[in-house]
Amino acid sequence: MFKLLVKYSIEKGIKLIIDENDIEKMISEKYYLCKLRNISEINSKFIELIYFYKNKNIIKVIFSRNSYFLKKFNEINENERIENEIESMIKESEKERRAKEKIKKENELKKKEWEDERKKKEK
């Protein structure tokens, strides 16, 4: 549903605004359509979508004073940073492994060449 709303806003050139204060107010007033008891019960996938669209400058988020969204966004950002570091380390270790394999193959070829030369000299 949220994705459809975002798609519609993009098509119409409207920037959606998500006000965390309004969300907290609806939850605290026990709005009849809202089944949440606390803002922290919002599905993490939904928060990730908000984060994604906010970073793409498709929506605007107004944070509350003690913002749950901002805390979650910082966690997501930190997790992405860690994932990027891990990917970088994996790529680097893969490069090192390939370089070692290349050196090993070169050494094996040199060894074989030396053995072949030695055998030729012995004949």
Can you tell me about this structure?
With 123 residues, the chain is mainly alpha-helical. It contains four helices and two strands; from the N terminus they run αβααβα. The chain has helices at 2-12, 20-28, 44-55, 68-122; strands at residues 16-19, 59-62. The chain has a two-stranded parallel ribbon. The protein is rod-shaped. The mean pLDDT is 89. Keywords: Coiled coil.
Q: pLDDT under 50 segments (min length 5)?
A: none
User: What is the number of beta strands?
Assistant: 2
Rough outline? rod-shaped
Content of β-strand: 5-15%
The pLDDT mean sits at: 89
Number of helices: 4
Rounded to an integer in angstroms, the radius of gyration calculated over CA atoms is 29 Å
Percentage of helical residues? over 70%
N to C succession of SSEs: HEHHEH
Distance between the amino and carboxyl termini: 82 Å
Cross-sheet strand order for the largest sheet: 1-2
- Determine the structural class based on helices, strands and strand pairing: mainly alpha
Largest sheet: 2 strands, parallel
Number of domains: 1
